[in-house]
Amino acid sequence: MSDFGLVPAPSAEICRRLVREALPEWVAGWQPLAENLLGADARIDLLGRDDRGRAVIALLGLEPGSDMALVSFGLAQRDWVEDRLADWAQLAPQAGLRAESGVEVLLLAPELRPAAVRAAANHPELHALRLRFARDGRGELRALIESAEGSGPLRPPAARANGGAGFRSGLTPEDLDLTPEEIAELQS
Length: 188
What we know:
There is one protein chain. The protein is built from 5 helices and 7 strands; from the N terminus they run E-H-E-E-E-H-E-H-E-E-H-H. It is 30% helix and 26% strand. By secondary structure, the protein is α/β, with parallel strands linked by helices. The chain has a single domain, classed as Trna Endonuclease, Chain: A, domain 1 (3-Layer(aba) Sandwich), CATH 3.40.1350. The radius of gyration is 17 Å and the shape is globular.
């Protein structure tokens, strides 16, 4: 088997880059617009838009036990971004933001306790996602994003949408450098 394995979270800057690269599997038409943007009294890790012009913000809670705080932080940042969407759309029409499309918030943390997932589920625009990091079969660092049980609907990973050709993490057997025998063993 390959040298695939989970690793501790890297620096915040690298985490943001890896999540930015992984989001096209989760957000239809993902287009990153800003990173580490000053929002409501704190930084927004990633701001982008989807294929409908809806603003999408991704917030990373990398500290243990930060999942509940991430929910309230997500609500505050959602409101802050929503209050500025019309101005941003006017100032930078090339960004493709549509104020009437609203804001989606991705809450990414390595641990998501049931209470945090339930709290996020009370707001359909919040999506609790499990975030981990791993080295793939080629030794490259990747963000692994998984939907939390009970989280609101979000576009499924492309690998799952195309008939289950990959894993919940969005990785494919090719990414992991698996042999046909290893693939068959995992599917049984």
